Amino acid sequence: MKITITCEEDVITASEQIIARKLAYENRFVNDDCYTVKQIAAPYHLKPGDLNSFLCDRHVQRKVGRSYVLEPKYRGNGYTADRRRYYFNADGQLHYKVEMLWTAKGREFVEKEMRKLCK
C-alpha cells in the first residue's frame, strides 16, 4: 500500500493506519479467550499486583524489568499469550510493550493455584 503524505495531519493519519495494520497482524493469535491479570483478580476482590505477587511467590512467574514471564516449568503449556501494545513516546518515536495475557486454560490454572492456598 502506497501512502502519500502532504502535511503533518497526513503523517499522523498514515502512522495510525500503519500501527493499526501492524497490531492486527501481530495480535492475530490473541483471541477473546485471553484475560488480563486484572480480569482474573477482580472476582476475588484482589488487586492485579497482589495476584502477580501471589503467582511470583508460588514460582509460577517472575518479574523481568517491568513485565512478568512464566517460569520455564510452565512455559509451552498454553497458559499465556503475548500481545504487543504500540505507543509513541514524547519525541514521537514508535515503541511497543509486550503484555502477557492468560488463556482460558491459564486462567483455570491460576484459579486452581488460588484454591490450593485456601485448603
What does this structure look like?
- The structure is a single chain.
- This protein has helices at about 10-25, 35-40, 50-55, 105-119, and strands spanning about 35, 60-65, 65-70, 80-90, 95-105.
- The radius of gyration is 18 Å and the shape is elongated.
- With about 120 residues, it is of the alpha+beta class.
- The protein has one domain (about 30-119).
- About 40% of the residues lie in helices and about 25% in strands.
- The chain starts with 7 loop residues before the first helix and ends with a helix.
- It has 4 helices and 5 strands, in the order αβααββββα.
Query: Strand-and-helix sequence, N→C?
Result: HEHHEEEEH
Q: How large, in whole angstroms, is the Cα Rg?
A: 18 Å
Stretches with pLDDT under 50, minimum 5 residues: none
The structural domain count equals: 1
- Helix content, binned percent: 40-55%
Q: What is the 3D form?
A: elongated
Please indicate the percent range of residues in DSSP E strands (runs of 2 or more): 15-25%
Mean pLDDT figure: 85
Total helical segments: 4
Q: Can you count the beta strands?
A: 5
User: Looking across the biggest beta sheet, what order are the strands in?
Assistant: 1-5-4
Largest beta-sheet details:
3 strands, antiparallel
> What is the straight-line distance between the termini?
58 Å
